[in-house]
Amino acid sequence: MSYGMIATWRMAYDGIRVGIVDLANCGSSQKAIVDAIKIVEDYPFYKSVGYGGLPNEVGLVELDAAFMNGDNFDIGAVAGSRNVKNPIVVAEKLSHERFNSFLVGDGVAKYASKEGFELRNMLTERAKKTWENRLEEMSKSNLSPYDGHDTVSMVALDQHGSMSCGTSSSGLFMKKEGRTGDSPLSGSGFYVDSEIGGATATGLGEDLMKGCLSYETVRLMSTGLTPQEAVNQATMTFVKKLERRKGKCGAFSLVAMNNQGEWGVATNVEFSFVVATDRLSPTIYLAYPAEDDGYPTIEVASHEWLDAYQARITAPIK
Questions:
Q1: Could you name the domain of life of the organism this protein comes from (predicted)?
Q2: What is the CB neighbour count within 10 angstroms for residue 269?
Q3: Taking each helix axis from N to C terminus, what angle separates 87-94 and 29-42, rounded to the nearest 10 degrees?
C-alpha cells in the first residue's frame, strides 16, 4: 500500500528522512510524525521551532505544537509552552486524553513534568543574541519588531492506511507574551481524516486562522478533488477574499496529502517543502506563487540553493 510524508520548509528534511524509513518498515504514521518533528525541534539552528527558536518581546521562548490522529480525530495541542524540550511529544500524549487535551502556558510544563517528559531551557545563546540585536535595531531605526513565522507542519500516511499530522513552532519573533498563532488550532494550522487526507499550514497565523484552510482542503478532497486541486482552491480563494475585504493578506503556504499518497502545495510566497513517498525518496522542493489563477511553479531545490541555505542558518551571529 502507498505511504508517504509531506512537510513545510527545508528544515523538515532530516526528520522526513527518518520518518519515511519507519513508514517503509510498516511503522505507524503517528510515530513517524512525532519522531520527525522531534528532530526539527532539537536542531538549534532552526530559529522558528523548538530549541533555538526565537523568543518573544521579553526574551522568553514560547512554543506551540499540535498532533492529530486521522483515524479517530484525537487531537492534542499546547500553546505558550516554556521549558519543555519537545512540545510535539506532549501534544501527542495529550491527544489520548478524554479531557484537558489542549494546554497553555504554565500548565504545559506542569503536565510534562508529571508525565516524565524532559524539561530544559529552550533559549540558546544564539537566539538570545539575535533578540538583543533586534532590540538594538528597533531603538535605532524604528524597525518593525516582527519577523519570521516558519512552522514545521507535517502530514503522514502509513501502509495501514492510517494518517496523522503535526505542527510545531516558536511563532512570531518578538511576539507579545502569550501570543498564539494558527499552528495549534484544529482546522486552521492542521487537519487530517484517514479516509480522505490531511493538510497543514505555515505563514502568518493571525491571517491563516481567519480561513480554517486545512479543514477546507480536506473537505474539498472529500468531494473528489486531488490534493493539488483542493489545496490550491482552498488557499487561493481565501487569499483573494482576504485581500478584497481586508486590503491585505499575510504569507500563506499549505501542504496536503490524500490517503493514496498523492500530494499538493499552495502558496502566495516563495516557499520550500519536503516530500517522500514509496515512489519518491526524500526531496526538497521550492514553490513559487502562480502569476494567474493557476498552480504554483514547483522545482527541485538546487545544490546552490541548499548550500546557501545551510550557510545562512549557521552563520555566526555578531
A1: Bacteria
A2: 15
A3: 150
pLDDT in tens, 11-61: 999 999 999 999 999 999 999 999 999 999 999 999 999 999 999 999 999
Segments in the chain forming alpha helices (H): 13-24, 29-42, 87-94, 106-114, 125-141, 205-208, 213-222, 227-246, 303-314
Q: How many residues does the chain have?
A: 318
Domain with residue 145: its CATH number is: 3.60.20.30
Predicted pLDDT at 318 = 86
Phi then psi dihedrals of residue 219, to 5 deg: -60, -45
**And the C-alpha cell for 310?**
545551510
151 is catalytic: yes
Rounded Cα distance between 315 and 309, Å, is 10
Q: State whether the Cα torsion 32-34-35-36 is positive or negative.
A: positive
9: left (phi over 0), alpha (psi -120 to 50) or beta: left
Cα separation, 276 vs 156, in Å, equals 10
Residues 6+ apart with CB under 8 A from 13: 274, 282, 284
Q: Determine which one of 151, 167, 202, 277 is catalytic.
A: 151
Q: Hey, which residues does 193 pair with through a beta bridge?
A: 197
Domain tally, the chain: 1
Instruction: Identify the domain containing residue 188 by its residue range.
Output: 4-314
User: Residue 121 corresponds to which cell in the numbers above?
Assistant: 531551557
* Dist. CA 285–CA 281, nearest whole Å: 12
